[in-house]
Structures are given as C-alpha cells and as structure tokens.
C-alpha cells in the first residue's frame, strides 16, 4: 500500500508515523535541554601524550573503539576495550554510575562519545566526566594500574561553620561507603547519608570503582583520594574525579534510590506517653502542669495504677564473639559489680573502668538521684545476665541509665550505627509547629554540647495551650565533636519523623539519647474551649465519685480486717520499708497460687518453715516461704528478709518479690528457682551426678561474688551469718543465688565486726569465734564459705563426720590431713571420676583451707577470694591449722547439736 494513497487508512498510518517521529525528536531534544548533566561535562582532561592526524589509522581505530565502548558499556555499565596495534593501538574505558539504568547510561555515553572528540580534537589521550558516566581513551595501557593516573578535585566555594563535626561525619560516611563499595557491591558502588546540624539536615555521599578492581584494590584506590583533606576541608560540596575510582559529597540528594549506607538507622517502636518533665518517655508518676486535657487526665488515672516497664529500651549483644574463658567471665563480673557500685556514688553518676582486658561503662543522667541510678543499673546488670550470658561485648539501656562492656576498649569512641525510635501517644489535633520543635531541639542540642557532663534539658512554651520539655545526653567519655555528631544523627532522625500530633518521641542510641514531651496546659487567660468544658463537667464529677466510693470501701475493709492484721515490730529506721522494692500480696492470691498451700506444691522445709511453689494469675511462677508457728524464727528474721533482700540486687542473690502479713500468716514471696537448693544435689546420691566439675566451679565462684557484694559493694553492708548448702538456691542454669537473710546483720560503713549474746546459725558452718563468744564479722562468713567450698569439692557434709556424741574426725580435719600428706585430689567426690581440672580443684581446696583457719585475721576477705578464683597464676599463702570445732563438747558434753542452732545467752548485741 502506497503512503500516497488517498484512502483514510493510508492517511492515518502516515500521520501515525509522523507523530511517532515527532515525539521521538521532542524527547531527544528534551533530554539535552532538561538534563544538563548529559550535555555539559563536569570536567575534561585532554592528555599530553601526543596527537594524531586526520584520516590516520589511529583516528580510525579511535572511532571504532568509541563505538564499541558506547555500545557495550551501556549494556554492562562498565566496559574496556582496545583497537589497533603497535603505535596505532588505542585503549579505552567507560563507566556509568552505579545508580543509572540502561537508558540513562546509553544517553550519557552517546553524549560523551560526541563531546570528547570535539573538546579534545586529535589528542591521543583524553578523559571526560559527566554526572552519570566517564569515558576515557589513551595510546597507553589504562588498565596496568589499579590507581588513578590523576585526580581532579572540584569543590563548592561556600564553607561549613561547624567545621570539626562536619569533617567527622564526612570521615565516618566515607569509611562506611568505601567498605560497602569495595566489599559488599559487585558493581563497586555505594551511596551513603548522614544527618548534620539543624540547617542542612543531611549529607550525601557516593563512591565508585571500576568493577574489574579486586576488593582490596578498590578500597585502596578510594582511600588514596582522601589522603589529603585540604581540598575539601569544611566545603559544602566536593568531588574527586578519577578514572579508576571517584568520590562525591553534597548537602543535598544527588543520586537515585535508597542509600546503601545510613550512618544512623532506626527501629521504630511505640512507647507510653509521658506527662512529667522527666527524661523523655520515662514511665513515671504524672504531674501535669496547669490543667490537664481530658484525654490526658483519663490516661493519667490508668498510668497511676499501672507498673512501669523494666524492659530495656536498647539492647546489643555481640552475635559472633562468645566467651568460653572462665577468667573472662570472672573479670566481667568483678567489673560490672564495680561499675554499678561506683557510678551512683560519683558526683556525675558516671563511671568507666577496665579489668584484665574487659572494659565497661555505667552512666545515669546527672540530674538524677544516686538511689534511682543504683536501682536502674542493678536492673540492667540483671538484664545483661539474662539477655547476653556469654557475649564478649554487650550494652543495655533503660530511660535512666546505660551499662556497657566489651573485650576491647570503646572509651571515647563514637557509635552511631544504630538507633531506636520510641514514639508516644498522639493528640487528636496538631499541637505545635515544625518551627517550634526545630527551635526546641536546637536549643537542647546547644545546651548539651556546651555542658561538661554532656547533658541538657530545655523547656519551651508552644502555641497555647501546650508546653514542651526536651532533653539530650551523650556518654561522658565523648569529645565535644563526637557528641555533636551523635546528637546531629539523633535529632535529624527525630525531625525526620516529625508529626505535630505526637506528644512524645525519643531517639535512643549507644552514644547518645534525645527526646521530647509535650504537655497540655491552660491558656494565659485561663480560657478552655467549650467542648473541653463540657467534657470536664461530665468526667470530673464521675471520677470524684469513683474516688470517694473507693475511699469509703477501702476504709470499711481496713476497719473490718484491722484486728486480723499482723504488723511488723518497730524498726530502727521508719523509712526502711518505704524504700524497699517489695510489694504486699493478698493472702487469698497466694492461697490460689499455691493450691491453698497443698502438700503437692511443697518444695521443702527449713528453719523458717515450709516453702511452696505457686503460680500467679499473670503466669509468673513464685516460691512462697511460710513461717511455721513452731519455728524458732520470728518477726526479727522476717524484718531482715523484707528489708535486706528488697534492697539488695545481684545476680547471685535470690530476689524477694514481696510478702503477706494478713491474719496470722507471715509469708515471703520469692522468684521461683526450678533447681531448688544446692544440698538437694550435693548430698543426693542420684542428683549429684548432675554436678560436673564446671558447674561446681561456677557455683563456688558465684557464691564468692554474692558474698563480696554483701560485704563491700551493696548499698548495705551485710554479714549473712547462716551461709550453708541449703541456703544456696540454683536457677535453671545452675547459677547460685544466696538466700535466707533472716539472721543477717547490717553493718555501718565504718564498722568491721560485732558481738552478740544471741548465737544463731547452723552447726558445722559457724566460725569458732562466733559459736563460742558471739563475735561475728565478714571473716565469720568467710569461714562458712570455706566449709561450703570443701563440701562442694568432696560431696560430703562437714557435720557428716559427727557420730553420736563422740567427737570423731570432721570434714575439716579430714581435708587437712590429706592436704599435708599431698593427697588432696583423693578428696574429690567420686562421682566426678577423672573429669575435672586438676589445678582448679587444688586451688579450690587451698582457698577452702585458707577460709577455715582458726585465726580470723588470717582468713582472706571475699575480694581476695574472688581474685584468687579468677586468676590461675597468682600465688596463694600457706594455710594454717583449721578450726576443729566441736561445739557440743565445748558448750555441754551431754548435748548433741546436729542442725540449726539458736542459743540465746542474753539480749545485748553490739557492733564496732
């Protein structure tokens, strides 16, 4: 069919062809007009290796080569080729930017092919750079070297005012994108971004090598570009153009797609709203400023009756570096114990330390209290033991504290690799403008950077009827520059998630934390909108009525049951119970939990009374200790247990959950430990096989650390006075926990020993000076510990050597005899066979004998014991004769003592 045919069909067809041609022409024209990056080269270098003549073989070879490079390069993104031979040989290379598609690459190379001949006519060597591609050719082999033959630096004339933080962020981003391009990308291409101050918001970077370079050579090529920073120091934008690799940074986005690397990335999770001017998003009692919004008031009522969450808001555990070295574990435990003790007692609530290649840090906000700091760090220590039991590096953060350790030093090192965003509740309408939030966070940033304690808190009045508070904190080991960089990342993320209805938002990282709270207040003229007034008129009387009726009900209930209640006796300090962290359980709740204290749920029985297993309605398993009416222990022991255990927090101490004092019952509620007590394993011929040497050694170490905490590192200084196998509980992983503080004695800071006429404890574990004279100290606990160590090694009871009323050899004399004869290893429990570490066992026997020496002054303190157990090389002193104590013969030869002892020889008790 002819195109000149007058038929409508032919006419339509010709118009269609015309339209398609017109559209193609317009698109091509737009490509050159709209995309200056394709029509205007960034830079051109015309080489000085010689010229070729028109119509020469070199010109012919060059034309063929450029066609090949343009064609093949657009498909692969990278291509190199050669044409001709000898003097007329031409080498060529093209590279398209890693984020371009085939179409963009083809267009860029077509423009480059045209322009390079026009801009460098008859040059035998030339290179041309565009935003999206590079083209170069030469009469010399371009591929012999992995480095750039030359580097062209181009920069923006405008400079950044905050020079040091800017350069720090640039360096961080460069390091990340260099490694990503070299080791994570087959195209040898990477992009990155990072937040920077409140003006530019973000910095963007791009790095690329030719894909034929091996990984290390690519990294080396990029690194060579930035050997000298003088070209781009503080510049708002710059490029380094090379043939083999190139680099670019700007304060605006210039590449396509999502960044390969983000200096700060986040995980977003919801968090409860906060009403008080506290550390951001902290669950706490609400103290609303002025008049609360109705929704906030209702939520406040719920918050007031809900427990705060103890889960960490940020947690890290090294996934691929677990420790199996017992020495590392011992050093770590000592370090953490030191940190959580020293930080709350320092003026800045901060501490860092190292111990035998283990490094740690503990920190609380400087405007907090030492008590809240100690409590927070203690909870973090417990969390670390649960969440990261064998990690060589770990960090965990709550709103009010940070605890971190590692097997390599991290002091003064900035970490901005990960953040978590915690979002609060939302209001029903916008509450503030972006400018208001910008100014609040900028002022908070400035105050924190200027603070020597790296902490800042700022309050601001937003548009009526809202006020806001914001706070920020860096770890105190960071320099001003590093703190600035960290805050820029955190605040950048916070503003990036800007939502003017959010009443609270927090960005949490390892090196810094930033957040804000918005509160509702009345306007300056006291006016409230009509809807709010109406709701308040309805809701407030209802709430008042509920509170009134609840008060009446509680009053009647207390009046009805007050005669049935059992109260604790007076204590030395009226605030002792108020400061405790235990709670009161209802008797009916504990009856339901334990099946009304059924025999089927009984776990065992001690001097205090029977212990029952139970399960609360929430599913939590508990152990309930019920004071027996026939028990020799009473109110004093109960008071000790409630006050002491509630204030003591350590991984090797049992945790008291609360108590019940209704009717005639006296009940203590503990965490449930599935493996019950050590004696149930140690002195059972079947279960003892579950105690291999590694578990026994872990138990020996754990008990020593628990005692060290009691004697020196806790808020209270405690002498246990009843340390024995049945008072050592075992959790699911066979970790020991010291329990039963009924006989414990509290010492003052400057007190070293005490004296009592009321001797109480367990025969076989009591130190001679305590059993005979009533003198007790930390060294009497050391004696009990020594007996316990020897029992764990031998699998035999100390008092098991007592037969009738005749004083035959006891365990201590038995061990001493074998030690002097050089046969100490024969003492080992036969169930161990030969599966033990000889040096460890001998060291434990040696330490046990040191602890049971008759002279208390020769016994080591628990700090020395912990060090002896953690160090295999430190020399040990020679032990002297143990105390071969036969209490029954000393007090009354006709009396046989074979268990718990309570001798009340008077009523006086003193310490000095």
TrEMBL record:
The keyword Repeat applies. It is found in: Membrane. One of its GO terms (cellular component) is plasma membrane. Residues 597-870 form the Protein kinase domain. Its main location: membrane. SUPFAM superfamilies: Protein kinase-like (PK-like). One of its GO terms (molecular function) is protein serine/threonine kinase activity. It is a single-pass membrane protein. InterPro entries: GNK2 (IPR002902), GNK2_sf (IPR038408), Kinase-like_dom_sf (IPR011009), Prot_kinase_dom (IPR000719), Ser-Thr/Tyr_kinase_cat_dom (IPR001245), Ser/Thr_kinase_AS (IPR008271). This is Cysteine-rich receptor-like protein kinase 10. It comes from Dioscorea zingiberensis. Residues 40-142, 148-254, 310-410, 415-521 form the Gnk2-homologous domain. Keywords: ATP-binding, Glycoprotein, Kinase, Membrane, Nucleotide-binding, Phosphoprotein, Repeat, Serine/threonine-protein kinase, Signal, Transferase, Transmembrane, Transmembrane helix. It comes from the Eukaryota. The chain crosses the membrane at residues 534-556. GO terms for biological process: response to oxidative stress. The keyword Acetylation does not apply. Pfam families: PK_Tyr_Ser-Thr, Stress-antifung. Residues 1-39 form the signal peptide. CDD domains: Gnk2-like (cd23509), STKc_IRAK (cd14066).
